[in-house]
Amino acid sequence: MRRNDKEITEQKALDEIMKKAQVCRLGVSYESMAYIIPMSFGYADRVLYFHSGPEGLKLLILKENPKACFEVDIDTEVIPSEKGCNWSMRYQSVIGFGEVEFIEDIDGKRKALQIIMQQYGGDLKMVEDAGLSGITIFKLVVSSMTGKKSGY
């Protein structure tokens, strides 16, 4: 990172940002092009959990190339100035890399959905096993992550 004074290195601080974030931008590579998907997610123990319908472009891509990156940000605010070039942003963010794994078993899906619901302060009413079989659940196991803050 170019600006060491803005870097967040403590895992506890990174975890706090991840737990507070509401949207995760998942970045993947498709036919030599970047593809970014804003998604709801859950985070626990350096693993991000996502849910999806049973088909779609992101699933096609992830099955072909499970390597992905992610970005979350919180507390964003524009800091205006009298000169346009002096405007700034206040934020905290985390960027990381990892590999996606699909969760096929019912118990694993139920656990992942519970983590996703906890991300948003909700409780999951147990979904019937038949309903879980129609939901695609995948996780991104984090291999590395870094944080950055500005205005703090």
How do the SSEs run, as a string of H and E?
A: EHEEEEHEEHHE
Q: Give the strand content.
A: over 45%
Q: Can you tell me the CATH architecture?
A: Roll
Unreliable parts: none
Domain module tally: 1
Tertiary shape: globular
Overall CATH class: Mainly Beta
By secondary-structure content and strand pairing, the structural class works out as alpha+beta
Largest sheet: 8 strands, antiparallel
Q: Report the end-to-end length measured between terminal Cα atoms.
A: 17 Å
Within CATH, the superfamily carries the name Electron Transport, Fmn-binding Protein, Chain A
Radius of gyration from the alpha-carbon trace, in angstroms: 17 Å
What value does the average pLDDT take? 91
Proportion in helices: 10-25%
Number of helices: 4
CATH topology assignment: Pnp Oxidase, Chain A
According to DSSP, the number of beta strands is: 8
What is the strand and helix layout of this fold?
Layout: E1 7-8, H1 11-20, E2 24-30, E3 33-39, E4 42-44, E5 47-52, H2 57-64, E6 67-79, E7 88-103, H3 106-119, H4 129-133, E8 136-150
Antiparallel strand pairs: 1-8, 2-3, 2-6, 4-5, 5-8, 6-7, 7-8
